[in-house]
Amino acid sequence: MTATDTHRAIDAVWRIESARLIAGLARMLRDVGLAEELAQDALVIALEQWPQSGVPDNPGAWLMTTAKRRAIDRLRRSKLLERKHAQLMHELEAEQEQQVSAVEAALDDPIGDDLLRLIFTACHPLLSVEARVALTLRLLGGLSTDEIARAFLLPEATIAQRIVRAKRSLAKAEVAYEVPRGEQLAGRLSAVLGVIYLIFNEGYSATAGDDWMRPALCEDALRLGRVLAGLMPREPEVHGLVALMEIQASRTHSRVNSRGEPILLLDQDRALWDRLLIRRGLAALEHAEKLGGALGPYALQAAIAACHARALTAADTDWERIAALYAALAQVAPSPIVELNRAVAVGMAFGPAAGLSIVDTLIDEPALRGYHLLPVVRGDLLARLGRLDEARPEFERAAALTRNLRERELMLRRARACGGT
What does pTM read for this prediction? Predict the structure, then answer.
């Protein structure tokens, strides 16, 4: 294996093992920042040694053992936490005496709880949403600071500062490295799911930049969602979110043309939709419903996505059911954006005039001030009614509001299609 191949292997191992490694270290040290630092130290040692010695048979166990040695050295030098020092030394010695298979079993046994604790710690409500996203991608997504910065089109220094402040805030508040229990779980789980879906949405429809999509972010969010579903198999909304992301991600290859220009849902070539992802999404939705979560916010959104996925052509779409599902969603998770989406569905099911009457009630909604999709929807409904002179300025307004170059170009094309000057 060449040095280049080894470095590629190390990068792949880190993506797979980093969350497990940090989670295991954080369980022992009760310090997420220190756990990440020691995990990074182990990675540096791997980069130094593996090109000469080769990638070990069990790279995850190798990294964990190396990181534990570093932890012991750190504790010895500081002359603190003597009991923890002895505990770590005992664990290390025990692992060294076992066969590789036994080491794997020892590492894998508590890993579910460890990862679950890490997810809830990274998404702690003490942190801002932006900090939760950055920390989650760093600790659980295995992304570097530079990768996170590029994904969100922000300076690397900004992301680095958010991550440092997040870890410092957790340490200062002495946040417990645990999964909340009882009534606290629902609120904290909602925050975790919200962070994962925010990451997915930024990949699915980028808020700014030159590309309409950032598929790598969708993949990271999907992976996090699948991990969480495996760790919390009895939580219906976890499966509802996974179902929603699987089905939405199935359209990835049909959402842009060869020039990177957006293709709207009704114009997409459905033969390009990924049937495997659709099957996975429908199965996750069914699982959420069996757990009694059919009316959960994510499950309802997944059911809406499923209506599109089941329609072989745009004309086959059951818009009346979609409108009904949005009405149900508005009951359990009311928001102006949900109402705007309901307007679209009502406009498709019962005619553009019916949809426009809903949109016009949202014009003065403070939460939608500056939201570019409000004039997009209004312009589309006006265009379908033949009121092109009114539709044109709506698309122009949407173009002025969006920060995404591809979306701006699309809106300007739609404005020109309305004719006039």
Answer: 0.80
CA distance 15 to 63: 13
Q: Are 285 and 299 in contact (CB under 8 A)?
A: yes
- Residue 209 sits at φ, ψ, to 5 deg, of 100, -170
Q: At what angle do helices 319-332 and 297-310 cross, to 10 degrees?
A: 170
Q: Is the pLDDT of residue 107 over 60?
A: no
Q: What would the two tokens of residue 163 be?
A: 């991550």
Q: Could you give the CA distance from residue 61 to residue 49 in angstroms, rounded to a whole number? A: 15
Give Cα separations from 419 to 386, 395, 409 (angstroms): 12, 12, 16
Phi, psi of 404 (to 5 degrees): -100, 125
| Helix, strand, or coil (residue 203) | helix
Give pLDDT tens digits for 48-71.
888 888 888 888 888 888 888 888
DSSP code of 206? -
Nearest to 242 by CA among 287, 275, 210, 276: 287
Q: How far apart (Å, rounded) are the C-alpha atoms in residues 277 and 165? A: 37
Alpha-carbon separation of residue 410 from 261, 264, 379, 396, 406 (angstroms): 8, 10, 13, 10, 6
When pLDDT is averaged across residues 307-334 and rounded to a whole number, the result is 97
- Whether residue 21 contacts residue 61, with contact meaning beta carbons closer than 8 Å, is answered with no
End-to-end alpha carbon distance in the chain: 63
Helices (H) and strands (E) in the chain, counts: 20, 2
Cα Rg of the chain (Å, integer)? 24
The first and second tokens of residue 64, run together, are: 């964990």
